[in-house]
Write a structure and sequence with these properties.
The complex is a heterodimer. Chain A is an alpha+beta fold. Chain A contains 13 helices and 19 strands. Chain B is 75% helix and 0% strand. Classes of the chains: A alpha+beta, B mainly alpha.
Chain lengths: 493, 271
Amino acid sequence: MSYLSTFFVSAGTAAIMAGAAFAQQTDITIAIQLEPPHLDPTSAAAGAIDSVLYSNVFEGLTRFMADGSVVPGLAASWEISDDGLTYTFKLREGIKFHDGTAMDAEDVKFSLDRITADESTNAQKALYAAIADVTVIDANTVEVRLSEQNGNMLFNLAWGDAVIVAPESIEGIKQNPIGTGAFMFESWTQGDKVELSRNPEYWGTPAKLDKATFKFISDPTAAFAAVMAEDVDAFSGFPAPENLPQFEADPRFQVLVGSTEGETILSTNNKMPPFDNVKVRQAVAHAIDRQAIIDGAMFGLGTPIGTHFAPHNPAYIDLAGQSNYDPDKARALLAEAGFADGFETTLHLPPPSYARRGGEIIAAQLAEVGITAKITNVEWAQWLETVFKGKDFALTIVSHTEPMDIGIYANPDYYFQYDNPGFQDLIAKLNVETDPNKRVSLMGEAQKVIADDYVNGYLFQLAIPTVAKAGLQGLWVNAPTQATDLTGVSWSK
Amino acid sequence: MRRNLIIGGTLCAVFILAALVSFFWTPYDHSVLDIPNKLQPPNGTHLLGTDHFGRDILSMIMVGARTSIAVALVAVGIGMGLGIPLGLWAAARSGSWLDELIMRGNDLVFAFPFLVIAILITAIFGAGAINAIIAIGIFNIPVFARITRGAALSLWQREFIMAARVAGKSAARISVEHILPNVTNLLIVQGTIQFSLGILAEAGLSYVGLGAQPPLPSWGRMLADAQTLVSISPHMALMPGFAIILTVLGLNLMGDGLRDYLDPRLRVART
C-alpha cells in the first residue's frame, strides 16, 4: 500500500513538473544586491534606482545599448547645428506615459529644466550644465541650446539621470514611478521587492515577459541560497564570486561574466599628509600587487588597470606597468619622502567584498613596505557621510561605476581632492571637443596625467557576474551603465 | 565526578597553552597572505589548511585564542570587580533603598538585549576588541552581583555572622572577612561559566563585525569569512567552529566539575 501511494504521488509530481515545462514561463524574478532608497532616478546618486528602472520603466531621449553604444531612445532623430550649440530632437510620435498622458516636447522641456534648475537635486547636474535653454518647437520637436560645445551631450542624455518624466506624475515619483518604458511599475514592498508588469501600449518592441519582480538580497550567503534553491531566476551582480564555479558546474544555471564601468580604486585623500606628497602616493602604488587582490578578493574576476579608465573603452591606455608591484621601489620612495620607517594611516572599507577583502589584502601589502593601515569597516551611509561628503579619511576602496567618469579628477572638491589646474584645463578642452580622433588623444593624455600623479591606487576594473537559470536569454552581460534591462529577456524552449 | 573536571581542564589548558605559545611561535605568520596557496584543505604543510587569503588557519586559531581569552578574561574581571562589591553591599544593606537601587539597576541591565547594547557601544566608540570587552563586561556585572547577594543574604542569618556582629565588626569588614570567603566557590564556578559565555559573545560580536578588527584574527570573524565558502572549503568554517565549541565545552565541563568539587553541600557525598 505504501509503495503504491508513493508511486502515485511521484507520478503526480512528475505530471505537474512536465506540465510546467511545457507551459512557457512568462515571468521572471531577478535579484540584485541593493535596494533603491526611492524610485526617482533623476534625483539621487544611488545606482540601485537605475538597476531597477533604467530602460524598464524610464527612458531618455537617447539610451545605452548592452554593448555601451548610444542609440536613439524617445528621440527618433536629431540634428546638430554647425556650431555644435543647438540640438534639435525629433520625438517619436504617439508615445504615452503609463498613466495614459502623452509624452511630448513639453515633457522633455520639463525634465531637462528640472535637471538644470537651481534647486535640482540631480546627482549628475554637472553633465548637463552646458544646457542653456530648452525650447518647444511643436509637440514632437524640441530644441536644446548649449552655452558651450559639449561633445558628450548625446552620451550624457543617455544616463539614467536624464530620463524623461512627466509633470503630471512627478509628485509621487519616489513611490510610484510613471515612465514610458516597456514595463509598468506595479508595487514596491520595502525591504523585499519591486514588481513590474508589461506595458501593453509600449511604442517599441514589447517586452516578452508579462511580469518582472526585482528582489533585494544583500547578504552573500542568502544570495547563494536563493539562487541554489531557485527562489530567484537570476541574480544580477552576484555578490560572492567564490561560488561561481559551483554554478558553472551545475547544468541548471548559466554564469555570465561581464565588464562594468567600475574602476575599483584605492582612493587617496590628496590633501591629507603624507599623501599630499606624490612620492608617497607612488610608493603606495608600487606596494600594491593587483593580481593578488583580483585573485584573493574577487577570485580572479577583474582586469588590472593603471589609470581611471575602462579597459573596454577604445581610448583606454594600459598604464598598469607604470605602477607595477615592486615593494623595494616602494620602500626606496618612502625613504626619499622622509618615511624610511613607514607611517601609520587609516583605511575605510565600505561593505562590498571587493572593499572588505581587498582592504585586508592591501593592508597586508602596505605593511610589507612599512605602512600600517588601520582598517575601519563602515556601512554605506557612514561612508557617504564621513568619506564622500566629509572627506575625513586617508585611504578607502571604492568602485566608481559611472561610465566615462575621468572628469571627476577635474573637480578639486571631489572627495579625493586632487587639484591640478593643468588637468582641469585638459578636461575643459575635452568637454568642448567634438572631433572623435582629438577626443581620443585628449582622453589618453588625461589618463597619463592622473597615472603620473599617482592620484589614487588603481586596482582593477570590476567585473559583474550574473547567475541565471539555464533557459533564460537576453540578459545584459556587460554593464555599460547601471541597469538591469529586462525588455529583451525571454525564456527559451 | 572528577571526570568532568579533568576533561574540561585539559581542553582549557590546551587552548590557554596555544594562546601562550602563539606569543613566541606559530607555524606561520598569521598576518602574511599567500594568495596562490589559498583554500588549501588540511595537509602536511598546513595542518588545518589555509583560508581564502592563503593564511595558515592553525596560526590564526592560535592567535585568535589569545583574542578570545583576553576579551573574555577582562570582561569577567570587570563583571567580578564591580558585581561582587555591589552584591556584597546590597546584601549588607538588605531591604534598604540602597539594596533596591542596586538590584533594580541590575534588572535594568539584564533587561536590555546584550547585542543591542554592544551595537550601541560600538556605534558610539567604534568597533574593536576594547569596546567588545566593555560591552561584554557590563553584562557580567549583574550576573555576579545577583549571585553574590543571593548567597550572602542567607549567610547573614548564620550564627557566626551574629558572633562577628556582636564582636563589633562593621558590615564592610564582615562582608570581606566572613561573607566573601564563603561565596568564593560559587563565584569561581560562575566565573568559568561567564568566561565561556564571554568567548561565545566575543565570537558573536566579531562575527557581525563589531569585535576585533582585521588584521587581528578572531574566531568569530574567521567564521564570518568562511560563510560564503562553506560549500567549497568547509574546513575554513569547521576549524574555528571546533575551536569555539571545544573551548566553551571545556569551560562548562570545568565549571561543572569545579562546582562538584567546591560545593560544601556535595562534599559529604564525595567522601
